[in-house]
Amino acid sequence: MATKLDEWKVLPRLMMLVTTIMYIRCLEWALSQPDLSVSQAGLISVVTGAFTGSFGIWMGKESK
């Protein structure tokens, strides 16, 4: 059973799903603010960069 889970790459896909959900929740929070401060906008920028980086690494691993 463990080899099947490894073949299907369940854990990386689950982690990417959780990361995507958290990214969407951060964006929802930012869009619900009446006026973003500089620090809040910086937080969203960092979260977006981290998500983009992790997604790029994940896609690179999936293609191999």
Secondary structure tally, helices: 3
Question: What's the alpha carbon Rg, rounded to whole Å?
Answer: 15 Å
Query: Which residues sit in consecutive blocks of at least 5 with pLDDT less than 50?
Result: none
Give the strand tally: 0
Structural class: mainly alpha
Task: Quote the distance from N terminus to C terminus.
Answer: 22 Å
Whole-number mean pLDDT: 89
Structural commentary:
The protein is mostly helical and 64 residues long. The protein has a domain at 37-64. It is 86% helix and 0% strand.
List keywords for this structure.
mainly alpha, single chain, 64 residues
Write the layout of secondary structure elements.
Layout lengths: L1 H7 L1 H23 L5 H25 L2
Helix pairs in contact: 2-3
Q: Quick summary of this structure?
A:
The protein has helices spanning about 1-10, 10-30, 40-60.
